[in-house]
Each structure stands twice: as structure tokens, then as C-alpha cells.
Amino acid sequence: MPRFYCPQALVPGATVELPADVAHHLHVVRLQPGATLTLFNGDGGQYVVTLVELCKKRANVHIDAFEAVEVETPYAVTLAQALPEGSKMDWIVEKAVELGASAIQPLAAQRSVVRLSGERLDKRLAHWQGVIVSASEQCGRNRLVQLHALAEIKPWLAAPSPSPRILLTPRATQSLAGWAKANPPQAVTLMVGPEGGFTPEEEDAARAAGAIALSMGLRVLRTETAGLAALTLLAGAWGGI
User: What is the pTM of this model?
Assistant: First the structure.
């Protein structure tokens, strides 16, 4: 059943107009009135609806029923990802949504090749928000991952954190796997460096701010692999997949 994000109030029994981009998609795939769809608005649960009217730029649906379906993990994980080069961030955001991350915090690190500011930054954040929506539609999540504004790493470390920060570094003496087995499921923030990793100064600053230094095991993982592997490891240890 096709699933779409619809950021508006949805009430069973009502007839609502879908966002223009959703209407255009339905027109392109040639759905006909009477087709059944699933909508979600990010507040939790999903809605079964029937397509009533479809034009090129407009679509109306009747909301038939609400389903209290949730596929969230029982603990919240924020992925604090230092900006990688090229389009790697698109991949990271998409897969983090699929693997259950609750929030994504882009970080500007010293070794980040990509530098974003002003209008260019606004466009990238809007693009990543679109990636989150598309990934949520595909994987069945009914709550959107929160995308935080880009932060410089030192001020971000200086700010209070609502959850323990985990610094993923190959120089750590304890593994994330071992730590997860020894600790109960809980909200955490995973810190992943860019290509080349965090600098020694950044790692020292993270430790001084209370971050727990943990490794991903025997091999050094790429920046686009480390966070996703960590999310999967936590899900295996604590549940959520």
C-alpha cells in the first residue's frame, strides 16, 4: 500500500486535500479514485485513506481509519555525524532513518572537507529533510527523525547533552559492543568523525566534556559506515530491529 507523509491534522471521517507533491506523484503513477493509501503526519500512528479525486496538481482523500502502528526503537539514538564529502551525507541520513535513529546532528569538524553556510546550508538542510521524509515513507516509520541545525563541534560539546555522548574512535580501548552488553538500553548520542576521523584536539575536547570513547572493533570503518554499523550494533544488543 503506498505511504505518504502529510503534515496536517488527520481525522477519521474527514476529507482532506493532499500536498501538491503527493498529488503530483499519484498522478504520475496513474492511481485511480477508489485506491487505498496510507498517510502519516509525524505525530504517531498512520491513517488508511481512500482516494476520492485526482487531478494533475490536486488530490482529495477520505480518511477511513486510524491505525496505532509504531516501529520506533525503545531508546533514542542521536547520530552526531561530522560532515563527509560529496553526497555521502544523503546515504547516511537515509540509512540512519531506516535503522531507527531518532535524531541527526550534523557537525562541522576540523577535517570536514565540505563547508556549508548561508543559503547553501539552508538548501542542504532542506534536502536532508526531504531524504528523511522519503526514507520514512519507505521503511514504515510514522514519526520523523529530528534534523538539528549544523553545529561547530566545540560549542556543541560545550552545551549540555540530555544523553551520554559516545565518541567512536579506533583509539579507544573499550568496544561499543562490550559497552552495550554491560549497560541497559538508554538514550545515547553517537559521535562519528569525517574522513580521517576527529583530530586529537577534538577527541580530547570530547573526553573532557564527558564523552565515552569506544571503538567499533578490530577494523577502521569509513565515516559513512561507522554510524550505521553502530546503530545496527545497538539494535542487536538492545532490540529495535
Answer: 0.94
3-state secondary structure of 178: helix
Q: pLDDT tens digits, residue range 190-204?
A: 999 999 999 999 999
* C-beta of residue 239 within 8 angstroms of C-beta of residue 73: yes
**Cα(167)–Cα(165) distance, integer angstroms:** 6
Is 207 buried (19+), middle (13-18) or exposed (0-12) by CB count in 10 A?
middle
Distance of alpha carbon 164 from alpha carbon 159, whole angstroms: 13
36-40/3-5 β-pairing: parallel
Q: At what angle do helices 88-98 and 118-139 cross, to 10 degrees?
A: 40
CATH topology classification for 3-67: Ribosomal Protein L25; Chain P (2.40.240)
Architecture per CATH, domain 77-238, reads as 3-Layer(aba) Sandwich (3.40)
Rounded distance between C-alpha atoms, residue 95 and residue 2, angstroms = 20
Q: Where are the domains of the chain?
A: 3-67, 77-238
> Do 3-67 and 77-238 show the same overall fold?
no
- 99-136 confidence digits (pLDDT tens): 999 999 999 999 998 888 899 999 999 999 999 999 99
Please state, as a whole number, how many other Cβ atoms lie within 10 Å of the Cβ of residue 61: 29
